[in-house]
Each structure stands twice: as C-alpha cells, then as structure tokens.
Amino acid sequence: MSRRKKKGEDINTNGWMDTYADTITLLLTFFILLYSISVVDSQKLNKLAEAMKKSLQGSTKITELENIENLKVGEGKSDYENLAEKLNTVIEQNALTDVVKIREEERGVVLQLDETILFDSGEAVLKDYSRNILNTITTVIKNIDNDVLIEGNTDNIPINNEYFKSNWELSTARTVSIVRYFVETKEINPTRFSVKGYAEYKPLVENNTEENRSINRRVDILIVEQKEK
C-alpha cells in the first residue's frame, strides 16, 4: 500500500523567485538604456517603453529596437558631429561634393580639398576660383574657436624645378599659401593656424593608378578637436 503524500509536498515555494528575477533584470535593462540616452526623441522612447511593457507582461513577441544612436536627436550630438553636418550641407548647397570631402577623425573634422580646385599642377599659387571656396570655409572657421591645421599632400611622382626641389617643398608651399589667405586676406587670428607638408608620405590610397594619385593630391584642413584641460 503506497504511502499517502503529505499536504504541500508538491508545492515549490521558491517558484516566485524566477519571475521576480526576470522582472528585476528587465527593469535594470530599461534603466541602463535610459541612462545611455542623454537626449532622446519622445516618439522613439515611447516605442522603447512599449517594448519593455510587453516584455514585463509576459509577451513572447520580440519588438525590434532601433539602434541606440538613432534615438539621439540633434541637441544630443557632439559639437563635431553638428559641425560635420553643417559643413556637408554647405558643400552640397555649393555643388562641391566632387572636390571637397568631409572626414571625421579622432583629431577632429577634416575638410579634404582636391588639388584641382586650389592649384594648377606643380604650382602653389591659389587659383582665383579657389578663393570662393576658402571664403565659404572662412565663415565656418570664424564662428568657432578651434585651432586649424592645414596639411599638404602630393602623389609619389617626383618634382624638381626652379621653384620646388621636391614634393616636400611643394606640399609645404601650398599650405602656406592657404594659411596666408586666411590670415592676411580674411584676417583670422594667425595664432590659430599651423601647417604641415607631408609630400607623398601620407597617402589615402596606394599611388598605383592615376585615379588614386589624384585622390592623394590634396590639402586637408583639420579643425582640431579641443581637449579638456
């Protein structure tokens, strides 16, 4: 004769702990997400809250969450993200996207200017047309306090004439022409500028085709990211 089970033997008194642990985990995840978002779009935040609500109610349906970066609005972007967007807008409005590119680096925001809009081949005298482009860049530089580094780059084809004995001289002379325009013509504080000539030694791509060499023949105007003291 089987032994009669005592009352309560089949009841798991710790079963509630699983549900409680899941709820705490979900709440913790929710607050971590909130903490990660400095300024959020209210509509997208509502979507996030709705997804968490369904999870807490036991729904097994997975709600797709948008990339956390997309939850941020313009006010939450860094100064350099906003500056890069502003520069891209100016370039597009002036139909310069083929000759001026924007790069974001750890050092700051770089305006990459094609050689063809600034100088004739093998020369360091600014073209008249280039002054209109530099005037547009001037309006941006005057509205910020950051230092500006102007970097000259060439391809790997040697140069040796009465003006420039090597690409070192050519790349440096071109940066000096640009900084003099900013300082002497546009009257920007000269203490904000510095120049570097890299010759062919800092290419963006290999110098193995004419197309690649044309990419490497450029002047980079770096708006230096200000570091906290």
State the separation between the terminal residues, measured CA to CA: 85 Å
CATH architecture title of the largest domain: 2-Layer Sandwich
Mean pLDDT, nearest integer? Answer: 79
Q: Can you identify the CATH superfamily of the largest domain?
A: OmpA-like domain
Let me know the largest β-sheet: 5 strands, mixed
| Residue runs with pLDDT of under 50 for 5 or more positions | 59-74
Shape: elongated
Pfam family, one: MotB_plug
Organism: Asaccharospora irregularis DSM 2635
InterPro entries: Bact_OuterMem_StrucFunc, MotB-like_N_dom, OmpA-like, OmpA-like_sf
Membrane topology: Single-pass membrane protein
Describe the structure.
A hairpin with a 2-residue loop joins strand 1 and strand 2 (108-114). This protein has helices at residues 16-36, 42-56, 79-93, 128-142, 167-185, 210-216; strands at 100-105, 108-114, 148-153, 193-197, 218-224. The chain has six helices and five strands. Mean pLDDT is 79; it is low at 59-74. A five-stranded mixed sheet has the order 1-2-5-3-4. InterPro entries: Bact_OuterMem_StrucFunc, MotB-like_N_dom, OmpA-like, OmpA-like_sf. One of its GO terms (cellular component) is plasma membrane. It is found in: Cell membrane.
List key phrases describing it.
single chain; 229 residues; alpha+beta; 60s Ribosomal Protein L30, Chain: A; 14% strand; membrane; transmembrane
Summed up:
The protein is α+β, with helices and mostly antiparallel strands. It contains six helices and five strands, in the order H-H-H-E-E-H-E-H-E-H-E.
